[in-house]
Design goal:
By secondary structure, this protein is of the alpha+beta class. It has one helix and four strands, in the order E-E-H-E-E.
């Protein structure tokens, strides 16, 4: 599941606060996402984890209904 590409997994926050970061490990990126939800998970915010190599959105917060 891990990659040698340090910028493969891209995490973004949009809404009232904007931030982004890249990690080479999906496990680390998912842990960061949990941390970011705690830090910036407010009404109007959207947090997205994308695999930059495949273009696949792995998960979003809040969940799409």
């Amino acid at each position: 599941m891990n990659s040698n590409q340090p910028d493969r997994y891209h995490l973004t926050v949009t809404g009232h606060v904007a931030a982004h970061g890249w990690w080479g490990s999906e496990t680390v990126a998912r842990a960061k996402m949990t941390e970011w939800i705690g830090d910036w998970g407010r009404p109007g915010a959207r947090i997205t984890l994308t695999d930059q190599e495949t273009g696949t959105v792995l998960t979003t917060w809040p969940d799409e209904a």
